[in-house]
Every structure is written in C-alpha cells, then in structure tokens.
Amino acid sequence: MSLDMYAEEILDHYRNPKNFGKLDKPDVKVRELNPLCGDQYEFQVKVSDGKITDVKFNGDGCAISTASASILSEFIKGKKISELKKMEQKDLLNLLGIEVSPARIKCAMLAFNIVKKVVEESGKKK
Amino acid sequence: MSLDMYAEEILDHYRNPKNFGKLDKPDVKVRELNPLCGDQYEFQVKVSDGKITDVKFNGDGCAISTASASILSEFIKGKKISELKKMEQKDLLNLLGIEVSPARIKCAMLAFNIVKKVVEESGKKK
Amino acid sequence: MNAEKIRRDFPIFKRRINGRPLVFLDSASTSQKPVQVLDAMEDFYRNSNSNVHRPVYKISEEATEMYESAREKVARFVGARDHHVIFTNNCTEAINLVARGWAQRNVKRGESIVSSVMEHHSNIVPWQSLKGATLRFADVGDSGLLGDLPMDKKTRLVSLTHVSNVLGTVNDVKKIAKEAHENGALFMMDGAQSVPHMKVDVGKIGCDFLAFSGHKMLGPTGIGALVVRKDVADDMDPLLFGSGMIREVTLKGTTFADAPMKFETGTPNISGAVGLSAAIDYLEKVGMRNIERHGRSLTEIAMRSLGGMDKMKIYGPRKNRSDVLSFSLGDAHSHDVATILDDRGIAVRSGHHCAQPLMRRFGVGSMTRASFYLYNTVDEVRQLAEGLGESARVLKV
Amino acid sequence: MNAEKIRRDFPIFKRRINGRPLVFLDSASTSQKPVQVLDAMEDFYRNSNSNVHRPVYKISEEATEMYESAREKVARFVGARDHHVIFTNNCTEAINLVARGWAQRNVKRGESIVSSVMEHHSNIVPWQSLKGATLRFADVGDSGLLGDLPMDKKTRLVSLTHVSNVLGTVNDVKKIAKEAHENGALFMMDGAQSVPHMKVDVGKIGCDFLAFSGHKMLGPTGIGALVVRKDVADDMDPLLFGSGMIREVTLKGTTFADAPMKFETGTPNISGAVGLSAAIDYLEKVGMRNIERHGRSLTEIAMRSLGGMDKMKIYGPRKNRSDVLSFSLGDAHSHDVATILDDRGIAVRSGHHCAQPLMRRFGVGSMTRASFYLYNTVDEVRQLAEGLGESARVLKV
Ligand SMILES: Cc1ncc(COP(=O)(O)O)c(C=O)c1O
Ligand SMILES: Cc1ncc(COP(=O)(O)O)c(C=O)c1O
Fold it and tell me: Between A36, A39, A103, which is nearest C365 by CB?
C-alpha cells in the first residue's frame, strides 16, 4: 500500500527538513530538476580534508523527495568523500526505511542524484 | 468477380487501342499521371467550330485505363464541346460496359479526368 | 444519459486497485476506451489488415475504404466542409505541422504569433522552435480567464487552446477567430480538450486550423488530426517527406501529391484511424450535448463539495467551465495527494500538467487535477472528496 | 519451423476471398498480426490504459513500465547497446528525424549524402528536402546488385537500404558501414525490409542509424523506431517540439530533456509499442534464423516455378536474396495481373512499389511483387504460379 510511504518519520522530515537553507560560501553547489514533475533542489556543501564539513539544501518538492533530501543531508554531513563515493541507491532506500512505490522512485532519487554529483565535484576540490 | 472486367471488348481496346499516337499540331494537349500507380496518358485534340475534330492519345497503363482512354477517344471524336461538357463518370462506366471494382475505379477514371480537362481547354479555344 | 450504463462498455472498470474499483479521474490526459472501439480495431486486424492507398486486392480495398471513411467521419464530426483532415500521430504533431509547414513559410521576421500563458507545452514549444517570428503571449487573469490578445497588424497567427487543460476555462473562440481575422491573422485552435467534450464546428467557429488527439476522445493512441482550411493548405509545406505524399519521384527531385495526402507519409496508423472512427460513432450515439452537460454537472458537484474543504484552493473560473478541476490542498504536494488517492484506487493527475508557464503564473510548482468524462459518476466525485479528506489528515495539512 | 502451425495464430487466414482462402503475398508492404499481438494490445486497453511518463497512480505506472520495457525489448532485438531507441510513427518518420534532426545540422553546403537508385521513396525524398547538401546516388546493376558508392571525403552520410523492397537484394551493409566510416561519413540503414526478416545487429553491422517499422514485423500500424548511436544523438535536434521532450518551459524559451525523450513528443502510441513488443516476442520464439531460412526457401521455390513460365521476367539477383520477388509477365500491366490473382484470393502488390527511380532503371512503369513471410507455405507458392498461368491466358500475354 502506497500509504505506508507516509510514515511518521518521513512526514517529520517533510514538515521540518534538516539542513534546509543556504550556506554562506559553499565550495560546491549542484541544482537539479526532475523535468517530469518540476521538483527541484539545490545542495550546497563545504569541503575540507576530504570531508563534507557542512551542507544545506533548498528547493521545492513532494514529501518523498523532501524527506529524501533531508535524510541525505544529515547522512553526508561529516562523512568522508571517499566513503560517500560508494553510496548506492539501495543505501538511500535503507535510510528512508519505507517501501517506495515505482511511481515515486524518481522523487526519492532526485536528491540522491544531486548528492552523487556533489560528492563527485567535492572530490575534485580535495 | 473482378475477372469479369477483362471482357473481350476491353482486351481488344487494350491490345489495339483506337486513336493511339500523336497529332501534328494539336490545339489542346493534356497529360495526367496517376501518382498511385505511375500510369499516365496524354490526350491531344484538334478543335474547330465548337467540335473536337480529331483526337490522339499516348502513354502507358493497365488494361482498364488503356481501354478507357481508347473508348473515350472514340467517343469524343466529332462531338460538340457543349455536349461533352455534360459528360459524367457514369457515362464512361456505361461506355465501358463492365463492372469496375472499387480498387480499379481510379484506373478507369484517369482518362476520364484528362478528357474533362481537354474539353474545358477546348471550350476556351472558341 | 446514463453513466452507469455507459461504464459497462468500458472493460477497464472491472479493474480493481488495492481491492477497490478503479475511479478514473484523469481523462483529460487520456480517456478510457469502450469495447466498441477495441472491437473495431480487432475486426480490422482479423479481417482486412493490409496497407492502404495503392490497393488492387480485396482486403487492401477494404483497408483503404476504412481509412478514408474514418477521414470523412472526422470531417463531419468537426463540421469540416471547406477543410482537409490530415491524420497525425497526436495533437502535438498536428501543431508542429502548422508551425513547420505553414508558419515557417508565412510568418516573416518581425511578424508575430500570439499564444497564451494558459497553453499546453505542445502549443508553446513548436512556436518557440521557429526562426524569425516573434512570439507574444496573452496573460491569464487570477480567475483563470484569458486576458487581451497582444495582437496587431503584424500578427499572422493566433494559436490558442479552446479549453484549458488545467483551469477548465472555455475560451470565446468565435470572438477570437473574428478578432484574428480582422487583424489579417489566421486562427489555429488547440482542440485537445474541447473536441472530446463538446460539439466543435470549425465552420461556425472560424478555425483555420484545428488540432486534436484521438486518445482523449475514446480512440486509441497514435492517431490525431489537423483540420485545415483548404485554401490555407495550398500554402503549406509538408512536415515529413517520403512515400505516399509524392506525385512523382526522380533522382533530380520530387513533385508532391495533393492535400491531404501531401501531408501524410509512410504507412499511416490505419487501425488508429479505424479506432478513432468507432470512437466518434460512440460519442455521437451518446450525444455531444449530453456528454458536455454531464461533465459540467459533475464538475459543479465537485466544486461544491471540494470548495467546502479546509485549505482547499480551486483554480479557474467559477462558471462556464469544462470538466477539468485543478486544485491545491494546503501546502501538500500534488504528488503526495495523488499517491494517497491512488491508495484508494482514485486516479488523478499531479505535476505541472505540461503547463509550466501557467504554474508559474499561479505561483505554484504543481497542482492536483481531477477530470471527468462520460463514464464518471456522482459517487466517484464523492469518493474523491473523501479521499482528499484523508490526504489532508495523512499529510497533516 | 512449421508454417501450417504458425498460420493458426493469425486470425486473418480464416478469411475467404471469393470463396477461397486468402493467400497473402504482400508482407513486404505490411505483415499480418498474430493473436498474441492483438491480445497484448487488448490487455493494455482493458487493464492498464493511461498516459505515460508522469505516472503517480497504479495504472499509469503499469503503462509506463509497458512502454519503456517495449523500448528495451526493441533495443535488445537489434543489438542496441550504445544506441538509443526512439519510437516514431513508422520507418519514414524515423528517416525524417535523421534528415531534419541530424543531417540538416551536420551536412554543410557542398558536402554530400549518398543514397542509391534501389531505395524506397522514404529513403530518397527526405534527403531531397534538405537544403545545402548534395545528394548522390549509387547505381544498380542489371542483376540487381548495388553499384559503387559515389563517396569521397566530403560525404557525411551514407543512407542505404539493407534489403531492397523490390529486388530482394541483400546489401553488404557491414562492408558499406566500414567504407562510410573510413571516409568519415556516418551510416544510416533502412531496415524496413530486413529487421522483420533476419537477425539484425546494429553493433555488429556498425550502423549509426537504423530505421524500421513495426507493422512489417507482425506489429501494429503507427509504431516504428529510429535506433541511433548515443554520441550521435547528442548532436541531433528534435524533429517535433512540444510536451514530453522538454526539461523546462518558460515564455522565453525551453530546455530539452535527454535522449531518447528529447525526440518523442506528445502522447506516444503506447498500445503500438506494447503490440510491437509482443511481436518481437513472437518473432524470437519462432527464431529469426528460422524465419529467414523459410522465406529464402519459399523464394527459391517461387523463382524456380515462375522462372519456367513463358514470357516471365524476374528482377533481382539469382542468389543470396531475401523473400521479395518482383516480376513482369510479358507486357501485361502489373495491376491487371494483380487483379486476376485477387480473383483467386491471392494478394500481391502491383505498381511502382514506392521506387520510381528503380522502375525507371529497369525501364518499366511497374512490376508485380510477391513477398513471403513466416506464415506462407509452399502450397501458396504453387497457387501463385497457377494464378499467373491464368493471368497470362486472360490477358493474352
Ligand atoms: C525499404 C523500405 N523503406 C522504407 C519503407 C517505409 O516504411 P513505412 O511506410 O512503414 O514508413 C518501406 C515500406 O514499404 C520499405 O520497404
Ligand atoms: C490543451 C492540450 N493541448 C495539447 C495536448 C497534447 O496532446 P497529445 O499529447 O495527444 O499530443 C494536450 C494533452 O494533454 C492538451 O491538453
């Protein structure tokens, strides 16, 4: 049942997303749009010593994509870039802790794709 | 049965078309192509005193279109233009004396359409 | 008109979603198909399937007759007497044919094409793709009505939708056609949302071009039409080149066939035309006036029952509107609302509805949309309202 | 492979023409459809019909999955790994997409496109419609084999058919691809007559573009495909503009989606893709090698039995040919021959076969053509020969 996607924790992240906003002078920023629905987010991070030291995101989307962005922002903060490079789709789905219906998988993956690019760019910043 | 289209008379016209060839100095000539099959004929006529005094046709096509051209060439020769203006599709079908199948009606009508134009052009010639 | 009886002709309504019957409220996107349409296509494939236009044998005679009589049926259905009917893949391709075939040739640099902010992307992007012409947009008022047309003596074409696929606004196209013609411009009407839902007569309206899709009017996918005034078609280039649209091909060059053949190339979607023809039969049997009345009445009921909900914002005019209803439920995202409705088997559309400029005009990223057709019932409207109540609870709106 | 058994899957073979069973020898024009293909489309309309690409509710999820998995199936079927599959209306539209989308942008004035005298109009007229590029034609020998390609360093594109729809000639496309690439040109292959009849692998051949139609390979009308190398697609403009192919639309301008979406606009022929997918399943179950062998064997039998007839001229190569067979019976016109065959329920094609330059090359206005497919039998070939005997008698050849 797709209703199960709207677990308490997901709705909490949706209503009160973590790390929402903008950074002062981000080292890397990546903005992506889901052309099918118009949802979009920008992630901004600060990088130092091969780590993501700070992260903020902003933008607009549904409960699933917002929760996914919020959870990912928490997850990457403080993590080593080399570690984050290994992150796969299924890791995000584990973090979300819900069964995402096929129709909504793209919503969940929007932030994931952005974060993948952020990690890649950050790697170049060393 | 479509076989009935190949009556003795039709095949005679096909094998030995009447008025086949070219005129010396035609007053009017009209060439038409059936783009669906590539069949084409040119009709040439001489006009005087409001009459078609001579006619020849040339070109290439199937038994039905050739017979139709041959029969029409005989029919219009010597006829008054004012009279020919009244000619309708069903007159040609009567002249042919066969039941033309829907698939082949365009073959029969190729010469008819040319002759209609010839008559119109001839009318302008006084 | 009896929607309960009509439903029985639509096999998909036997379908269950999560154990509940399907409540299909997305006909503005694509309609469901009655068994009569499916049977007509089956019959074609089972008995007469073959290619058209160069027929010599029996079944290709039949196929050609079926294809060409579908063309005549479409012509009659939209009142086309001085117009050709050109079959296309969908409404979008029909609009592209006008853009590439007519406008590219007839709208010079410095001259303009007028469209509007309420258009579907398919009636915006083809005009943007043209080189030279200036594109002007009429605005949309807060109440969802079309604003003044930015027209002048340099306007060559006015291309507007008859009915908005988001707001349900029914534009006064007769007046627009007149205004366009007075300015020396042609009028192209996007009928994607009107032809399926009301009686449309190109002669009475004064359309120079009308584009629409079969799949939104009980027909199959892959077939649409451009209806174009005959003398305008004389002034039009083909969009696509190849077999069927030619008169004679040589290595040096090619001469083209007469309209409408000139504008269709390759093997056409024959079964699509056959299905569309059967769809028109079905619509005409029910009656376009009845279909329009039924859709409007469901929309009114829905507006009343949704209008009473907390934090519900309904877009578009209050009155004289067609049977699409877009709304926002508080700050809930349309995808989430649609997902929760889907849990109950209720299919509504969410997102930007291929109308991003209109979304921007109303300051939103997306809307939720319910749209109605001849097979929808009052009970389904009630289920929609209930489902929205639950959406509000789940999403804590 | 058992053609008698296969026939039972094709409902049209129950059809009688003038009291006789239908002998369908025009599959090169369009093929018949097995019940499996019809059922797949029915099933889509009865259970999952809805629009694709913006799915939130259950049935549109299913429709999207069906449409996109059809795309994957086509890709696998033609060995597309580094290629996109773009759905089109038919083969002709696919070729137009290459002409308008790629060649218009990449072939400069003074540069050339190479085609041939044996091409179908759909692989000639699109190139003629381009501005700037020079069009060169390879000739065809008396035996029906392709002559040398008029290629040089200014050639940007070689566009040739894999199999001639008139002569049955199977071109050595692997060699042609290599030659094109050595000259710095791309290779576009018209697979309309090969993809349905033999195993085609774009990777092994080295096609940059492959175009074909679903309706000639047991699929429905209204669906075809362009298969295009991914990096080449990056260098391609859309042919049609509108919804679905966009990333973001504003009143000022539009950004496009990634391939393959960028090249498909409006509501696609979803049921067409579903039907094509089922057709590929059917072909693969029978096996493409078996289908090719069967077609070639019927063609050989036909060549032997027709070849013995008085005043019979058969066109095309003696050996290594596909399953189309064109001929002239004395000076009888092809229409008359076809009409007399039709009287016995035998469907063959007559006319110029959309290959007027080739007709001119052989000094004829038209030819009669029989073409074979997996459901044809040796007995049908015998009936063809008998019918031709009667044609000769009736027409006094
Ligand atoms: C060699 C060849 N190319 C192209 C085509 C055009 O195919 P379609 O009419 O499906 O676009 C055909 C069909 O007859 C063909 O035989
Ligand atoms: C107003 C309007 N115009 C054009 C279209 C495009 O129709 P299609 O996708 O069938 O080409 C639509 C379909 O949503 C529409 O609603």
Answer: A39
Please measure the distance between the N-terminal and C-terminal CA atoms of chain B and give it in whole angstroms. 45
Pairing type for strands C346-347 and C23-24 reads parallel
Q: How far is the CA of C29 from the centre of ligand 2 (A)?
A: 8
Residue B1 pLDDT more than 80? no
Backbone angles phi, psi at C68, to 5 degrees: -75, -30
pTM to 2 decimal places:
0.96
Q: How far is CA C42 from CA A2, C273, D11, D12, D280, in A?
A: 36, 13, 10, 10, 19
CATH 3.40.440.10 holds for D37-285: no
Q: Which chains touch B (3 or more CB pairs under 8 A)?
A: C, D
Interface test with A, best of D48, D51, D54 (most A CBs within 10 A): D54
In B, minimum Cα distance to C64 occurs at B103
Q: pLDDT confidence of A51, banded at 50, 70, 90?
A: very high
C331 neighbors C397 (Cβ within 8 angstroms): yes
pLDDT of residue A50: 93
- Interacting residues of A70 by C-beta distance below 8 A, sequence separation 6+: A13, A14, A17, A18, A19, A20, A57
3-state SS assignment for residue D39: helix
CATH number of B3-124: 3.90.1010.10
- The helix-helix angle for D378-394 and D334-343 (nearest 10°) equals 120
Q: Distance between terminal CA atoms of chain C?
A: 38
Measured in Å, residue B114 CA sits from the centre of ligand 1 at 31
Q: From the CA of C275, how far away is ligand 1's center (Å)?
A: 23
Pocket of ligand 1 (CB under 6 A): C 243, 266-267; D 29, 90-92, 120, 122-123, 161, 165, 190, 192-193, 213, 354
Residue % of chain D over a pLDDT of 90 = 97
Which helix (H) or strand (E) covers residue D84, if one does? strand D83-88
- Ligand of minimum distance to the alpha carbon of D349: 1
* Residue A126, pLDDT score: 59
Nearest-CA residue of chain C relative to D270? C221
Q: Which of A33, A38, A103 sits opposite D56 (nearest CB)?
A: A103
| CA gap C373, C30 in Å, rounded | 10
Show me where the domains of chain D are located: 3-30+287-394, 37-285
Q: What is the pLDDT of residues C49-59, one digit of tens each?
A: 999 976 789 99
Taking CB atoms and an 8 Å limit, are C266 and D122 in contact across chains? yes
Assign domain D3-30+287-394 one CATH number from 3.90.1150.10, 3.90.190.10, 3.75.10.10, 3.30.1360.120: 3.90.1150.10
Q: What is the pLDDT of residues C132-153, one digit of tens each?
A: 999 999 999 999 999 999 999 9
Task: Please check the confidence at residue C169 and state whether its pLDDT lies above 90.
Answer: yes
Q: Which residue among D267, D269, D270, D271 is best mutated to probe the pocket of ligand 2, counting the most ligand atoms within 8 A of its Cβ?
A: D267
Residue D385 Cα, gap to closest chain B Cα (Å)? 17
Q: How many CB atoms lie within 10 A of CB D134?
A: 17
* Residues 22-41 (B) with a CB less than 8 A from some CB of D: 36-39
Mean pLDDT of A68-91: 95
Closest CA to B37 of D91, D341, D315, C55: C55
Q: State the Cα–Cα distance between residues D118 and D362, nearest whole angstrom.
A: 11
Please list, in sequence order, all residues whose beta carbon lies within 8 angstroms of the beta carbon of residue D295, skipping any fewer than 6 positions away: D197, D322, D323, D372, D373, D374
Determine how many CB atoms are found less than 10 A away from the CB of residue A97.
11
CA nearest neighbour of C225 among C262, C195, C180: C195
